[in-house]
Design goal:
- By secondary structure, this protein is of the alpha/beta class.
- It has one domain: Alpha/Beta hydrolase fold, catalytic domain (Rossmann fold).
- 33% of the residues lie in helices and 24% in strands.
- Helix 6 runs parallel beside helix 8.
- The longest helix is centred in the last third of the chain and has 19 residues.
- The two termini are 32 Å apart.
- It binds glutathione.
- The site of glutathione has 13 residues, from helix 1.
- Glutathione (GSH) binds next to helix 1.
- Keywords: Hydrolase, Serine esterase.
């Protein structure tokens, strides 16, 4: 593992590291914020999964999460959104290939060799973090934005034993019915729609729900509203009687300004679940 940078931040350390990934077949870069408490022992961990076009850097620099994580004594990890670099397949469109891993394990060429983001996020990176940093792998929670909100919700509902709480900002909520989903799921895991259901938050919410705190924030002026399909997730939560909050935030758009406006509430909710 290589240390790319380490900066003191709100009494803790904001690091950027890079390590070879067996799942993705290339070196993967991630940001990790550890609060001061990590000097004395393992701390719980909140994942921030980012959206289309993002690297490890967007949420790390724009979400404003560290101040609240420092206050609560929890770690934050900011993974990349796909493998990247020379030799890794890509597409001309911004919403497929590098920067658009969609948090699935690809089974189709040319993607299958590198695009194993599901395994990378749920297995490989947590093990690497627990082995190298003061992270308590028994206490993890997930949040994310847009494509990353989709990743957070689908991982949480598939692995409820691994994650204590889940939240999302403007998640891609119903990818099996959206152009942010149909194109990518077809390319990565094939045209057979029955293989897609584990990667659709609204379908999972209807079938399984989540036995822990859930918080969704969605801006009413989100320019990608039609692609995100928040109504599908909201109605699935109601139909299931899921314990949780789905908040429509008047006037907010899809940007990190929306995220930084509400991140405190998300981190407070996760901290309560992680320390209970
Ligand atoms: N580039 C795309 C949109 C990409 C986009 O908005 N990405 C969001 C996530 S879905 C993001 O976080 N962008 C990076 C940033 O704001 O820092 C477009 O112009 O249509």
């Amino acid at each position: 593992m290589k240390t790319v940078s380490e900066n003191k931040c709100f009494g803790g350390v904001q690091g950027v590291y890079s390590a070879p990934s067996a799942a993705c077949g290339v070196d993967m870069t991630f940001g990790l914020f550890l609060p001061q408490e990590a000097e004395d022992g393992p701390v719980p961990l909140l994942w921030f999964l980012a959206g289309l076009t993002c690297t490890h850097e967007n949420a790390m620099t724009k979400a404003g999460a560290q101040v609240w994580a420092a206050e609560q004594g929890i770690g934050l990890v900011f993974p990349d959104t796909s493998p990247r670099g020379e030799g890794v397949p890509n597409d001309e469109a911004y919403d497929l290939g590098q920067g658009a891993g969609f948090y699935v394990n690809a089974t189709r060429d040319p993607w299958a060799k590198n695009f194993q983001m599901w395994d990378y996020i749920s297995d490989e990176l947590p093990a690497l973090l627990a082995a190298n940093f003061a992270i308590d792998a028994e206490r993890q929670a997930l949040t994310g934005h847009s494509m990353g909100g989709h990743g957070a919700l689908t991982l949480a509902m598939n692995f409820p034993e691994r994650y204590r709480s889940v939240s999302a900002f403007a998640p891609i909520a119903n990818p099996t019915e959206s152009d942010w989903g149909i194109k990518q799921l077809s390319a990565y895991i094939g045209e057979n729609k029955s293989d897609w259901s584990t990667h659709d938050a609204s379908l999972l919410m209807r079938e399984r729900g989540f036995d822990g705190p859930v918080l969704i924030d969605q801006g009413t002026e989100d320019q990608f509203w039609d692609l995100l399909r928040p109504e599908a997730l909201a109605s699935a939560m109601v139909d299931r009687r899921q314990d949780g909050r789905f908040r429509l935030q008047k006037g907010y758009d899809h940007s990190y300004f929306m995220i930084s406006s509400f991140i405190e509430d998300h981190i407070t909710m996760h901290a309560e679940a992680l320390y209970s």
